Amino acid sequence: MAQRVLLVQTETKAAQELTRYFNGRGDEIWKAWDLGQAETLLNELEFQFMLVDINFPANEWIGFLQRAQHKYPQCKIVITHKFPDLHREMLAREHGFAVFIRQPFNKQWLDRALANFAEREIAEARGEVKPGRPIQPLPRVSMPVRVKITLPYLILALIFALAGAYIVSQVVLESVQERYLNQLVETGVRSADWMVRQENNMLSTLRLVVNSQGIPEAVQAGETETLRTLVLPLAVNAGEEVVEVLDADGVSLLSMRSVAGGGPADYAFSAGEVHFKSLDFVQNVLQGQSDERGDKYAGLVQSDWGDVFYISGPIYDEQNQVVGVLLVGRHLSTLAREMKQETLAETTLYDLNGRPLASTLYATDQGFPLLDSQVEEVLTGQAQSSLTRNLARESVDYTELLGPWEVRGGSDVGLLGVALAQSFLVRTSQFTRIQIFVLVAVGILLVVSVGVYLARMITNPLQRLLDASHQVAQGNLEVKLDTGGDDELSALASSFNFMVAGLQEGVIYRDLLGRTVSPEVREQLRQTFSSGDLRLAGQEAVATVLMADIRDFTTLSEKMDPALVFEWLNAYYGKLVPIITAYGGVVNKFDGDAILAFFGILPSLLSPQESAMAACQAGLDMLEAIENFNQKRTEEGLPLMMSGIGINTGLVMAGGLGSSDRLHYTIIGDTVNTTQRLEALTRQFFSGSGIVISQSTLEALGDSRSEFNINPLGQRAVKGKAEQVQIYRLRQPMRVDGPGIML
User: Fold this and answer.
1) Cα gap 288→294, rounded to integer Å
2) Which pLDDT tens digit goes with each residue over 475-527?
3) Angle between helices 60-71 and 35-44 (to 10 degrees)
4) Are 544 and 612 a contacting pair, CB within 8 Å?
5) Does the pLDDT of residue 430 top 80, yes or no?
6) What is the DSSP letter of 422?
7) Which of 83-87, 550-554, 568-572 is modeled with the greatest confidence?
8) 733 or 629: which carries more pLDDT confidence?
9) What single-letter DSSP state applies at residue 104?
10) How many Cα atoms sit within 13 Å of 86 on the Cβ side?
11) Stretch 440-452: mean pLDDT, rounded?
């Protein structure tokens, strides 16, 4: 059924694009080039859709939209614009207009904009969203990219499987034992080389740790927790499984051992173990011995936490004296598993008695130990030849090549075995080789052709997404992607567009509140703006204002390095801001060493009693945090940061302050000024930190004042006030400690 559509646009090109779209739907279209002409058409006809440009001068368009919405509540109004204007967009959202579309106007974006009306009405009827909140549903994926990629390759795989079965049936198998043995020897060489690289990696970690600042001092002082703090990130980054830090007596100060099945940073920690002092490679380090390879040693340890290969090295103090030993270790099972991944061969590690310690081929308790004669032959004849033996495991025959496990360039700590399944290569006739060549060539051409086609289908949208992401990174939030299609790439493009829209909206709220409130408060604020309960235009509200200032900080900062002053202030604010936000307060601004916050306006308006209660409780917690903060600074020999806190309740003007492209939600008024004066009065009454509240805050507390310890301080004249102000001191409530004793 045709619907009436009114286009109120400032540009002819935009009106033409919209006209083509609605003509394609079969709708009746009316155009207006100014708001007066649009008013005339509204008085004559009722429209089902209206697309209004917000780029009309001043704010006349807001009044026009309100009158149109009042006259035709069922009319669906879409806001159009060419360039981003955050102030006007926020103004439109405040008045309940939530569907926006920016140029260029293509069919998909217009379809999505109009579909939002029906989706929002359904969601509002279900109570899933509040009225006025825009909805951006993800498109349904009906043809996954996984299917698009795997289906052609599945067909090709079937073709190759059938062709392979035909060829294999014609070939003649022939044993190639010599080639197999050469491959086994090459695998053994790669395994030995891998073990050398692994040892070097562990040595690198050892050097990194022992040369880290603070390690020798922590070892000398026996500070286990400090060692844990210093060593843990280095061990995690290097992926080490076991790290042991020993003192000069060989006793463990810190033992870090990875937890089986845990993450990269999951370690079990212990200390006080004494069994390391009896190990030769530990004693060599403790005694300061060195050989041609240096002062590092290696060895195997069989213990309750498993069989571990260790590299040990000394920890030197500033006088180059050995104050401790660092051991970096890997479980033998891990070494065997990683060696298999590197060489693609089954790996087994044996001790010098030929007993299996770790294996990827079989369980060590069900393994195949070496005979004494075999061990002797490997160790004595390692320079001339290698020893092989045949093994059978689960109906598979293996040949194992045995060699010495050497560390630090020649020391034998055990034996290393690598095994490959016995296999055979094939010898084919000339005709069969031609068949194989032709079939493989055709198959490769097909795979390449299909791969290029599929890659183009996938990479082109991804390249467009990459380009759009780069533009967003450069600050352009007007980017849009085409969402045509029914696969994950289309869903990704739609999600990207929705993300950019969220970034546009997020810019607005970051400008309003900065980062001093929680995400929950920002979300409630957004909903409050949408519902009209809160406006950017200035509005009066009764709120409680809190100001905290550091006493004599200006004089102190003049004598200190500016970077150090910033560090102190950030630490100070890091203690106070979380307290303010925890009680629902909003930090309005930081002014050097002063912080101004308000309670009772955001995210929703509160009663004076509620805002006063929250501010007083926050002030007391802040005072306690400041005292703890100063106690720590006293211990560190730093100057104290005594603070005064003023709290006042009264009428304020709240709203968005700034320009059209930069707004900040703030409060102004006499209540704010009086709060600053109250904070200044704390210098007259308190030598340390303290809180002063006004008479209006005391009255706002009402029955809740009994929950606080409030003492009158008399009347004082404050700047800007003709009459004196009655003030009070706010302290923690007194508690009873024993019969009749008040503290």
Assistant:
1) 10
2) 666 777 776 777 777 777 777 777 777 666 655 555 455 544 445 455 555 55
3) 10
4) yes
5) no
6) -
7) 568-572
8) 629
9) S
10) 22
11) 71
Domains, the chain, ordered by start: 4-126 (3.40.50.2300), 139-171+430-513 (no CATH), 177-195+335-425 (3.30.450.20), 197-331 (3.30.450.20), 518-731 (3.30.70.1230)
> Is residue 380 within 8 Å of residue 155, measured between CB atoms?
no
Token representation of residue 119: 């989706």
Q: So what's the pLDDT on residue 688?
A: 87
Strand order in the sheet with 252-258: 267-270, 252-258, 242-247, 322-331, 306-316, 297-303
Q: Alpha carbon 360 to chain centroid distance?
A: 37
Q: Give the phi and the psi of residue 319 in degrees, each rounded to 5.
A: -90, 15
Contact 488, 145 (CB under 8 A): yes
The end-to-end CA distance of the chain, in Å, is 80
The strand pair at 172-174 and 425-427 is best described as antiparallel
Determine the Cα–Cα distance for residues 116 and 409; give it in Å rounded to an integer.
72
Tokens for 47? 């429209």
Query: Left (φ > 0), alpha (ψ -120 to 50) or beta: where does 539 sit?
Result: beta
- Determine the Cα–Cα distance for residues 297 and 284; give it in Å rounded to an integer: 8
> At how many degrees (to 10) do helices 562-582 and 608-635 cross?
140
Give 114-133 as a 3 state SS string: HHHHHHHHHHHHHCCCCCCC
Beta-carbon contacts of residue 89 (< 8 Å; ≥ 6 apart): 54, 79, 81, 100, 504, 508
Give the contacts of 25 (CB within 8 A, at least 6 positions apart): none
DSSP secondary structure of 677-730: HHHHHHHHH-SS-EEEEEHHHHHHHGGGGGGSEEEEEEEE--TT-SS-EEEEEE
H or E segment and range at residue 268? strand 267-270
Q: Please give the pLDDT value at position 255.
A: 92
Is the previous residue joined to 603 through a cis bond, with omega within 30 degrees of 0?
yes
